[in-house]
Design a protein that fits this description.
Layout (H helix, E strand, L loop, with lengths): L3 E7 L4 H16 L6 E7 L16 H9 L3 H17 L15 H12 L3 H13 L8 H10 L4 H8 L5 H14 L6 E4 L3 E4 L4 H13 L6 E4 L4 E2 L2 E2 L1
Parallel strand pairs: 1-2, 4-5
Antiparallel strand pairs: 1-3, 3-4, 6-7
C-alpha cells in the first residue's frame, strides 16, 4: 500500500497548532504503520494583515481582551487554558515573550523545506522560536537563522526571502483551505478524504489514522472537531 498522506493546515502563530503537532506525534508513536505516513504542512495565515516589522513582545492578555471584547481577567483564563494544554503536551508556551508578526514568508520557506525534505524540522523550529522563545517570526534575519539551523542552505533560504518564490504555492494552500471549508486550524486531512479539526487528543488522531489507513471513503468526511485558531482569534 502507498504512503498515507496527512495534509495539515496550520500557522506558526497558532498555539493550538503546536499542541496538535505534538498530539499527532504521540499518535504516530503508537500507529502500526507510522513508517508509511507522509506529513505535509499547508499554509494558513491567521492574520494576513499582520505587520512585518514588529520586533518587541506585546501584552498578549491585553491583545486577547481587545480581540474578544472581554475583560483582562477573562482573557487571562483563556490564555491559561492554552498554556495548560500545551504543558500537558510537553510544550512551554510563553505568551509573555510573543512578538506578533506576519507569517507569509515563513510559509514560503516551509515550501522550500518541503522540497529539501526538512519541512517538519523547520515547522518545529519556527513554532518553538515563536511560541516559546519569543523570536520575531516576520524578521527575515530570524527566518534565515532558523532555517539554516535545521540544515537548509543559507544561499537558498536568502534567495527565497529576497524574492516572491513560493508565494503562489502559499496562496494555493490558502485557496484549497477555502474550498474545503477550513476556517480554523489545525486542520488535518488524511488520505485526501478524512478531516479532523482542532488539536484533538492523541487517541482521537490515532483513531483517524487507523480509519484512514483502512477505509477508502469517496470524499472528505468530518471526523472530529476541537479547539482551533481562526482569523478572529483562538477558541
Amino acid at each position: 500500500m502507498s504512503k498515507l498522506r496527512v495534509d495539515i493546515w496550520s500557522d506558526i502563530a497558532c498555539p493550538w497548532c503546536y499542541i496538535g503537532k505534538r498530539h499527532l506525534e504521540q499518535a504516530l508513536g503508537t500507529f502500526a504503520h507510522k513508517d508509511d505516513v507522509e506529513i505535509v504542512w499547508r499554509a494558513f495565515e491567521l492574520d494576513p494583515s499582520a505587520p512585518r516589522t514588529v520586533d518587541r513582545p506585546v501584552d498578549f492578555v491585553e491583545r486577547i481582551a481587545r480581540k474578544y471584547g472581554t475583560q483582562p481577567a477573562q482573557a487571562q483564563i483563556m490564555v491559561d487554558r492554552v498554556v495548560s494544554s500545551g504543558a500537558k503536551a510537553g510544550l512551554e508556551l510563553r505568551f509573555d515573550r510573543i512578538v506578533p508578526g506576519n507569517t507569509f514568508d515563513a510559509h514560503r520557506l516551509l515550501h522550500l523545506a518541503h522540497e529539501r525534505g526538512k519541512q517538519d524540522a523547520l515547522k518545529e523550529r519556527m513554532m518553538r522560536g515563536y511560541l516559546t522563545e519569543g523570536q520575531a517570526i516576520s524578521d527575515p534575519e530570524v527566518l534565515a537563522r532558523l532555517a539554516t539551523e535545521v540544515g537548509l542552505d543559507e544561499q537558498d533560504v536568502r534567495a527565497v526571502l529576497t524574492s516572491d518564490r513560493y508565494a503562489p504555492e502559499v496562496r494555493q494552500d490558502e485557496a484549497l483551505a477555502r474550498e474545503l471549508g477550513i476556517s480554523g486550524v489545525p486542520f488535518f486531512v488524511l488520505a485526501g478524504r478524512l478531516g479532523v479539526s482542532g488539536a484533538q487528543p492523541a487517541d482521537v488522531l490515532l483513531g483517524a489514522l487507523d480509519r484512514a489507513w483502512a477505509d477508502h471513503a469517496p470524499k472528505l468526511e468530518p471526523f472530529a472537531e476541537g479547539a482551533t485558531c481562526g482569523p478572529d482569534g483562538c477558541d
